[in-house]
Design brief:
Chains A, B, C, D, E, F: Belongs to the RNase PH family. Chains A, B, C, D, E, F: Residues 14-144, 162-228 form the Exoribonuclease phosphorolytic domain. The structure is a homohexamer of 242-residue chains. Chain A has 242 residues and is of the alpha+beta class. Chain A is built from 6 helices and 9 strands; from the N terminus they run ββββαααβαββαββα. Chain A has a single domain, classed as GHMP Kinase, N-terminal domain (Ribosomal Protein S5, domain 2, 2-Layer Sandwich). In chain A, helix 2 (89-103) packs across helix 4 (129-152) and helix 4 (129-152) packs parallel to helix 6. The interface between A and F is large, with 36 and 36 residues.
């Protein structure tokens, strides 16, 4: 498969270099700096002994996520959401996606009455921040759960499988894997795919940026996503074994 | 195809009764009350002779959407977002989806320096409010553009195709079309699909609510969506010809 | 009494055609679409088994109201209050008026520890939205209370009388009843009057828009209001008997 | 007329002692501390050489008002609105009333393209803060306009008449003038009346707190208001001549 | 020491005339109008039988402060923070300083589970509002605590010492005491100093407005502050003995 | 000087290990990760070709700062300010301090009509985040200005001197330099000192946390600050020469 078309010179089915650095900061129960190329996201997992009001007394826990972007993670400065007085629509959309994705890999009864919050803060952005965030947040979550099992002597591991995510798209007519910013800004279709390590789909969010995409293009993108996520799951596993 | 499994008794590939009532209110350039069964959404299209700051002087227009739910559209009262001090994450996610979907059917150069705002307000909710909103908003948009062409003598019709949307899902193991609230609250997977009248995909948003979905389930859901949207496009066309 | 002066051709003491449609939506305990001519307001009554903090343990209930206007209920689009980040002064003033008016017809001890919220949402505006809202909200409230008495076997009916409202004003020197938008935008004085079915005044809010009004003008306006409200109370009664 | 019924021992048609102190602070163009008994309100008038956006280029000015209550103006501490994140419904309702009342005495063409803001801040509250505010704000406005005429050599005086306000009500069955807090908290009806020095009505806002009020009660209240406002206008005039 | 350099003609180590008027309003447990020359601040102390959430059940109380400026306390009108939707950075900085300063003179165990809120509202500003506020708030606090001891028969007086504050600065090269607005707007360095009656420092906040200040300048400013605060403490004592 | 008293074992006049890593992220004109022991702050400098409204047309620029803390920079999770709806008082106080400090080292005429924003985001907190932020922000600012001079061919270097900051305090009776969190949480006095490379003071903010501090304690703290800042200025210079 040739790749001369991609600005980065990558093959169409090639991920960017991925790095997963655990224990990046010292206070959080899980703390991971994940890089997909130049995209760098700090993912922390925080355990709190409380549940949201609607779960009180039900014997189960909750997993949620918040997403933020440092003002100068981007090529021009983005106004700080705290200074603007609230989170925008894009931020809410992304953090809801991260939260749903990570809840899909946790048995909330086994977790017990606790909240785990995954904070995903983009230190540097170059496309694919939400998929990097999901991929890194899983590792932070696994570290936090591991700590919890050590401390609390849980009977069962609440994690039921790994979760990872990648973007795929149609760039200048070619289905490609893991779009960087240059591709993302100029593609016809952008699709974020979240899957588990059993090959099941957790989220599929595809958007036609230019013209509508055909069914065969969708099939090609899904195949790329399946390949990329299999690689990401292997990288997560390797990181957790270190 | 048997359908005993669905609470409504519908066949798995059967839409709810759909009604599209044009000119529902008198002030808006386009005003449509759309019903998908008991789900009723008022969609208005408003034309304004201004553009957002980032489009000034570029000679093109903008199409955007806002979504709201009357407090008692739901079975228990939902707090009014205006009283709560802002729009929540779900609202923002939905109105961003509606806006992107409708922009996909408009040539913004041909529209000229104008904004068309599609307000989609849910009068009564029974599942599928966002897909009903997109389907109705297209008709309101078409009416508004028609009026604009009459008034302003535009050279080209800015509409490049029809857009409609439907939800599909896996309910008790069965792929089904156009979920109502009883199904939505109890399904394993929920997917919203937006397509144009040429059979192209504009948005695909699938979420595993229970277990992850397999590739073959995804294929079945996409096939149902293609069938349902073809019917919805025909109903839009019939409504516009009345 | 001639009426050639009014844009609608109505006599000076003539209401617009009034329609009261019960059970307009299906979820609310009371749901009424009220029309005063082209002004259409959806009024729902929602019962909740809670009381505000300041009434806890006092054995009495509360009746409150919220008011909203769909963005394109008006001839030019009004910005959505939820998107603007809060309710404006006009909205607050109106919903406080509706709430006080409806509380005046309820015995809060007989209601017991419950909140009834009257949501009045303007679908289409042509003047007099607050008086239509009060008139319709009373019918929605009566339906909700009726349901509550059936369900809960209350000992006493908490409703102590009917409430209705109408606007009166001085238009081009002539005292007139039930101003529509064309009159409202061009009148010297505008007064909203809320009364009960015993002929007692609950609220009188008069504002000189142009020059100050004389005592004899006030007397003429109050007489028109008394006549109009007697007709509205009869229409409410007829609707509730259907 | 006996008065044994009123907590203060006042006759039913007797105002509290009223004081109007001009030039209370030194920066504002008009600055008046007005007292109605123990109710004390600081009213300042500020002139700015700008107009609101909707009046640009129309050659006329604007008069507006803002109202606030110091946290401990009341017998128990009221939360500061700035700390709570915005003005409440009562504040908005009152400042809209003050603004409308004062606009009624100004010729906005003669004022020219300027804004006069009347800030009414309650230093100590004992009932009737909004009527004291209107009465004091008129004097502050008159001082500011006087200064403006001296400075700018205006051709015409923009003030077309004086404005004052008083509350009236039904207290234990008796129509009374100028309610203090003890009466206000325990009355059946409370009505705020704003009039000009020609005996014309500018605003009438009556609310039945307990049972609805009859037409003859309304007439009695209006007569008391006419008497009280005539006295207040004389006091304003005397203060301005000092 | 000559003083020809100061706009007011004061000696470099001379305070403005200071007045401390107790019982300025009648509702608050402590109510003081303090004047430092033309700067006038109303300081009220309010006692509430509650504690903030983080102190529940700890048997100790809290002292906090809020600061506000009436819109026309200043030479041009300042927008009302309640209307702007929240307190700005300067307000928060000042009220945090006042709160810390007053907490430094209270034994919170001896206070018991109560909150005392010091509301400092600037009626007229001419420089030094925060130091006047602290100096006046101490007297209001002393009055409130005195009342509390009378009412509640506390075993110990929770006040452990007096607190006062003054500004010092470098104005045209000369160290000066108690800057007024004309000096403040044109000085090189501005320092606010809070001390107790034992000569101990509670807060020192110095800012170089123009060039950085030298150590010897700092020493001169601290000496001026010590002198001024000794005088202020004597004035507080005299006021409390009246 | 012995140091057995400090939890870290440091001498009383000893800084924590300080690291200054330039070019930490790639988009910002200046990007520095500064560490004071376990405290790590990312400081970016962003240049924008605009000025705030109050500086338009004056030919000078502006330097401002914003401060944030990642939710899990702290030992327990802190709520995200963007999610809470705004910046708190502590954040505003700190970012105002950083802004004033950095403006003190820039000639705003020489900068020209530009804004430089210093974003200081705490990745990990262990006391002294504001002093680390100022020290790092200076280096980021210097890098940004250097780039600007290269790009724009400025006539003069707008930087007039270096700026650094350190905290000092009284810990268990001993004056100490550069408090870490364990000391900060348990000290009697905490003082933040900002100085330039000429030994001038830019800001001094001292707070008695326990008992008031004496003049001789203040002198000892200032001496420690002078020593520490001289070392920090040398480290800044070395980093900029790399």
């Amino acid at each position: 498969m040739t790749s001369t078309i991609r600005p980065s010179g990558r093959a169409s089915d090639q991920l960017r270099p991925v790095a997963i650095e655990r224990h990046y900061t010292r206070h959080a129960e899980g703390s991971v700096l994940v890089s997909f190329g130049d995209t760098r996201v700090l993912c922390t997992a925080s355990i709190e002994d409380r549940v949201p009001p609607w779960l009180r007394g039900k014997g189960e826990g909750w997993v949620t996520a918040e997403y933020g972007m440092l003002p100068r993670a981007t090529s021009t400065r983005t106004q700080r959401e705290a200074a603007r007085g609230g989170q925008g629509g894009r931020t809410m959309e992304i953090q809801r996606l991260i939260g749903r994705s990570l809840r899909a890999c946790v048995n909330r009864q086994a977790l017990g009455e606790r909240v785990i919050t995954l904070d995903c803060d983009v230190i540097q952005a170059d496309g694919g921040t939400r998929t990097a965030a999901i991929t890194g947040a899983y590792v932070a979550l696994a570290d936090a759960i591991h700590l919890l099992m050590q401390r609390e002597n849980l009977k069962r591991n609440p994690i039921v499988g790994a979760v990872a995510a990648v973007s795929v798209g149609i760039y200048k007519g070619l289905p490609v894997l893991d779009l960087d910013y240059a591709e993302d800004a100029d593609c016809d279709t952008d699709m974020n795919v979240v899957m588990n390590d059993g090959g099941g789909f957790i989220e599929v969010q595809g958007t036609a940026e230019g013209h509508a995409f055909r069914r065969d293009e969708m099939d090609a993108m899904l195949a790329l996503a399946e390949k990329g996520i299999a690689e990401l799951v292997a990288l997560q596993r390797a990181a957790l074994e270190r």
